[in-house]
Amino acid sequence: MIAGPLASLLLGDGVADRPVASSKGHVIRLQRFRADVAAAAARLAAIGCSRGLVACNDAYWATVGWFALAHNGAETVFPSNTLPATLAAMSGAFDHIVTDGEVTAHAK
After folding, report:
1. Is 108 helix (H, G, I), strand (E, B) or coil?
2. Is 45 part of a structural domain of the chain?
3. Per-residue pLDDT tens for 30-39?
4. Domain total of the chain
5. How far apart are CA 66 and CA 62, in angstroms?
6. Is residue 1 part of a domain?
7. CB of 32 closer than 8 Å to CB of 93
8. Range of the structural domain that residue 72 is part of
């Protein structure tokens, strides 16, 4: 994979089929990454997320969540782990949780 500025993943004329990540043995191409970030950003905007905790087990989905939160101007909180006790102890630090898969957002 070719390294470059993070902004180039969402802006500019990147080659749509350029590989940018992998998840569970599958190569993720730029077009899919952009679509996943746009979909997650739309869901987060619709629920009014201003401070999201990224609780993903898959690094790809954590990156999608991080970019989606940043795109919306929301603060991003990364816990040291995703154990229920850790998330409960941090409950005042976020208003929604961003999770794996489709990057659904849940009210705390």
Report:
1. coil
2. yes
3. 999 999 999 9
4. 1
5. 6
6. no
7. no
8. 6-107
